[in-house]
Design goal:
mainly beta, five-stranded antiparallel beta sheet, 0% helix
Amino acid sequence: VHVVESGGGLVQPGGSLRLSCATSGFTDTSYYINWVRRAPGKGREWVASIRSDGTNVHTADAVKGRFTIPRDNAKNTVYLQMNSLESEDTALYYCATGPSPLLEEYDNWGQGTQVTVSA
């Protein structure tokens, strides 16, 4: 299984950014694609998850209403659409696959992509 994130960058508060997570090497539609972030000086924080068949979508309370997790099956890509960004969203964002949204069960991780929210 191969997981590659892209799309990070610098954005002003209130702005938007879309991260991409391209996956390959697995066909289990019950598997979840998950987004996790690590802010400077803090531990990993689960952000959002979507089951590969699109039946279950979950987002953390901290980003609910601002972040969504659309997908493009034809491209084997899941996105993290981030709107109304705040400085607290500054973090290294990872995409990971796993049999559930539980962080401790993730078995394949991408390299991460940096998101910086600053004026």
